From TrEMBL:
HAMAP family named in the record: TIM_B
Name the UniProt record assigns to this protein: Triosephosphate isomerase
Organism whose genome encodes this protein: Spongisporangium articulatum
Catalytic site positions: 96, 168
Example of a GO MF term: triose-phosphate isomerase activity
Cross-referenced InterPro entries: Aldolase_TIM (IPR013785), TIM_sf (IPR035990), TrioseP_Isoase_bac/euk (IPR022896), Triosephosphate_isomerase (IPR000652), Triosephosphate_isomerase_AS (IPR020861)
Subunit structure and binding partners: Homodimer.
Keywords, ordered alphabetically: Cytoplasm, Gluconeogenesis, Glycolysis, Isomerase
Listed EC numbers: 5.3.1.1
């Protein structure tokens, strides 16, 4: 279960959230090996989150919401994979629909960012998903598998085996509009089939495929019951620690 905080919470609020989340999960005796829990705070919060997680030996993982495709140098405002790795990030989201929509990220740029993440040992959470027009035209499966294939260009099978893929229908992000569990399953299964076709069935079976889009404690169990859904990428609901802890505890 990964929580994408988006552009919310300063470094002090971030520390409070992580503490509350960790306490809720510890009280519930959460099995972190069975259901991994990760937070993706804004860049400015990462140092505080790292200090808390390392200092208190919390079992939460953390990562960033984006990275630069470049290594270093004259790229004002950018953050490199090396910087994230140095801070102890495990994960980095790549190709979130808000980056694609508001920052013009293309499939080629998403691919370059995946390459940069792997250069620094970060596990990318690759986001794919269709907009409302594509969904209405019923071409969403082809759209998502094409995004996937383009993003994975020239990556090795060893790299792809470790990637996390998040299917996030854009029309369901931050809208309160949730895809049905069957909608989530349809594309997550197609993602796995595409991986099997491009690489191997065993690789496809091992890759973690998440669903994202208005996931809450009230709807997570139905989504997680789907065969090809291994987890959730949670936006809005992840900045409420009690709600996010309940999402992580969907098996209760
Ligand atoms: C997201 O930002 O990845 C997301 C899924 O947002 P929300 O849960 O708010 O729809």
């Amino acid at each position: 279960m990964a929580g994408n905080w988006k552009m919310n919470l300063d470094h002090q609020q971030a520390a409070h959230l992580v503490q509350k989340l960790a306490w809720s999960l510890q009280d519930a005796k959460h099995d972190f090996d069975a259901v991994e829990v990760a937070v993706l705070p804004p860049f400015t919060d990462l140092r505080s989150v790292q200090t808390l997680i390392d200092g208190d030996k919390l079992k939460l993982k953390f990562g960033a919401q984006d990275l630069s495709q470049h290594e270093a140098g004259a790229y004002t405002g950018e953050i490199s994979g090396a910087m994230l790795a140095k801070l102890g990030c495990s994960y980095v989201a790549v190709g979130h629909s808000e980056r694609r929509e508001y920052h013009g990220e293309t499939d080629a740029l998403v691919n370059a960012k995946l390459v940069a993440a792997f250069r620094h040992g970060l596990t990318p959470i690759l986001c794919i998903g269709e907009g409302l027009e594509v969904r209405k035209a019923a071409t969403h499966v082809d759209h998502c598998t094409a995004q996937l294939e383009a993003a994975l260009t020239d990556l090795t099978a060893e790299q792809v085996a470790t990637i996390v893929i998040a299917y996030e229908p854009v029309w369901a992000i931050g809208t309160g509009e949730v895809a049905t569990p069957e909608d989530a399953q349809e594309v997550c299964a197609a993602v796995r089939d595409k991986l099997a076709q491009l690489y191997s069935q065993s690789l496809a079976d091992g890759v973690r495929v998440l669903y994202g889009g208005s996931v809450k404690a009230a709807n997570v169990a139905g989504i997680m019951a789907q065969e090809d859904v291994d987890g959730a990428l949670v936006g809005g609901a992840s900045i409420d620690p009690a709600e996010f802890a309940s999402i992580a505890r969907y098996r209760d």
